Every structure is written in structure tokens, then in C-alpha cells.
Task: structure prediction
Amino acid sequence: MSWLEYFRKWASKYEREVEVYGYDPHRLIAPFLPLIRKRERGLDVGCGTGKSLEAIAKFCDRVVGVEPVEKMARQAEAKGFEVLRMRGEEIGRLGRFDFVSFFASLDYMDPERVAEACGRVLAPGGLLFFTLEPEHLGHAEHFRGFEPVKRLRKRAYEGQDYWCFLLKKC
Result:
């Protein structure tokens, strides 16, 4: 089963299950907020049901989500968010954003294509935030064209840590 098929099956129970095990995007990005400050346009890639959009809406004036799983995208839209149906590797054709995030989603994408797309969609001086499971830490090497701002390992929920990265487009 592909990751896309897996998330299509999981979509109807996603919200309930992440509540049970305590996944909270706010907690993952909180240590980075003093560096991020206020942003105009935020793009959250792999936004799922909108939990991560809620997190970035606190510091971005306008947020847009990207989600290829229809059922999840509809749940995010029901929360009032704009959601585009596409894969993360395709974001390079969108307009400019000064903040782009991937909460627990980059692990399921082609990191080389995503890094290239982020280079096109991020405005000069824009910030890129992403999380990676420890076994996918090598994905970060594909973002060589970005300046590292901060990285740390953070507990996402019981039994799952993520490496969290904040990079700046030069």
C-alpha cells in the first residue's frame, strides 16, 4: 500500500487518533516562534485535516494548505482554510510565500523535488520549517541551498520524536 492509499484510509479517523496520542503541531513549532515572528503568506504542505494550518495561522496573516487526500482536505476546509489539491513536489508552480511548512509530511515526499520546489515558491528571505522522523534525517541534506537558522529534536507524542528544522532562503 502506498503512503497516499494509507492516508486515504486513515483520513476518517485521523483527528480522533492524533488527539488520543497527543500530536500537537503548536508544540513542535513553539521553540521557533521568536525567530519566525509575524509572516504575511504561509503555505503548509501536507496539511491533512488542518491541525498544522491552525498552528501557522497564529503568525501568518494568510494561510494556504496543500493536501492530496480529498477527505482530509475537506476537513481542513470545514475549519475555514483554503486547501489546494496537489502533492508537495508540485508546489513550485504556486505564487510566492514568505513561510512554508511541512509538519510530519516531508517524510512521505521526494526531498530533492521538494527542495527544488521550495526554492521557487519561497520569497527571498522566506522561512522554511519542516519536521523529520529520525530515520529520514537524510532528507535534510537536499536543502543545501538554504541557510540553517535552528534545528532541534522534539518529542511529538509518546514514542515519537521529530527533528525540527528552520531554514532561510538566501
